[in-house]
Specification:
Layout: H1 3-20, H2 25-37, E1 41-44, H3 51-61, E2 66-70, H4 78-81, E3 82-88, E4 95-101, E5 108-112, H5 119-122, H6 124-131, E6 133-136, E7 139-142, E8 148-153, H7 166-169, E9 174-177, H8 183-193, H9 207-219, H10 224-236, H11 249-254, E10 255-257, H12 261-277, H13 285-296, E11 301-302, H14 304-309, H15 313-323
Parallel strand pairs: 1-8, 1-9, 2-5, 5-8
Antiparallel strand pairs: 3-4, 6-7, 10-11
């Protein structure tokens, strides 16, 4: 796939999403950025903000298989990855073991309210997200590509929930926050969704097109100063720092653990993907800066002092961007 084809495909995909999703342009931009970069998203927002509709529309627009998994406290790992059953041939009496794939065998997966299920079941997604495979009784089963996991969390109700461990949070490229729509957008939502007209979503790409896009994103060049900028942001988020590095006061005061190297990879890949979506063939420092918040907000672990002072991760990222000089 050449750059011009990829640019047109991204534009058509954005238009198709706009048929069903009113407003939320920043959220759509961040999700498409992660999608083309080959990452996964954690989406945080209150109920009723079209989180499910967004990811379902994305699957329809690219003609990919979509599965929704509703996470509950009684969900087991086999309910996600699949299970083996014994089948008996009535004619011969022979018994065979057959694997029945679970809902993770899809291209686009909505893990709804992922923090409502115990860690054992949450971890069932780890191998799929990182290795594009699942293992059942020692046998590995490959997953189809592309694979895009979008997990949702409800920030309001926290009773009976199981917070995701940091190791699994790190597997999500972006942590996207979806907020209430503006008054004008909400008026359009109420008018369009209470009529009998339903938007028709036309597939504009195939699975092979998306895979070609992801390879093209990796081929987009990032200059040494862009990579250095991403690295300095990540290293400045660590309170321990180093002998030759200046750690911002806010980080030393309120951060317990900073971001790891995977955050730097997400910043560089995300910057390349954002450049492609913007019609540019080279990643710039401004791209790194634009995606720093969704990349870092779930990778910075705050201490008790931050909680007492009312400081959240978004504020720490903002101070990081102020402290680290843009090349």
């Amino acid at each position: 796939m050449i750059f011009e084809e990829a640019e047109r495909l991204a534009s058509r995909l954005r238009d198709e999403l706009g048929r069903a999703i009113i407003g939320q342009q920043a959220v759509v931009q961040e999700i498409l950025t992660a999608f083309f970069a080959g990452g996964h998203c954690l989406l945080r927002g209150v109920p009723g903000l079209a989180k499910t509709l967004l990811i379902k529309t994305l699957a329809q627009a690219v003609h990919l298989k979509f599965n929704r998994i509703q996470f509950t406290p009684d969900l087991m790992p086999s309910d996600i990855i699949g299970t083996e059953v014994i089948e008996e041939d009535r004619g011969t009496g022979r018994r065979d073991i057959r694997f029945i794939p679970g809902p993770v065998f899809a291209n686009v997966i909505l893990a709804d309210e992922i923090n409502r299920t115990p860690p054992k079941t949450q971890a069932a997604l780890l191998e799929a997200m990182q290795e594009y495979q699942v293992t059942v009784n020692g046998v590995r089963y490959d997953l189809e590509r592309p694979l895009f996991v979008l997990a949702t969390q409800n920030p309001i109700e926290q009773e009976g929930t199981y917070p995701l461990p940091e190791a699994q949070l790190d597997r999500f490229m972006f942590n996207v926050v979806i907020d209430y729509p503006s008054a004008a957008d909400e008026h359009r939502i109420l008018a369009s969704t209470t009529s009998d007209d339903e938007p028709v979503i036309t597939p504009v790409a195939s699975a092979s097109d998306i895979e070609a896009m992801r390879h093209l994103v990796r081929d987009i060049p990032a200059a040494s100063n862009v990579i250095d900028y991403a690295m300095r942001i990540v290293r400045a988020s660590r309170p321990a720092g180093g002998a030759d590095e200046a750690v911002p006061t806010a980080v030393r005061q309120w951060v317990k653990w900073g971001a790891g190297p995977r955050a730097g990879q997400a910043l560089v890949l995300g910057a390349k993907s954002r450049a492609l979506l913007d019609g540019r063939c080279v990643a710039a420092p401004e791209d790194v800066r634009a995606i720093a918040l969704p990349v870092l907000r779930h990778r910075i672990l705050l201490n008790f002092q931050a909680e007492a002072d009312g400081i959240d991760a978004d504020q720490i990222v903002a101070r990081l961007l102020e402290a680290v000089q843009t090349p």
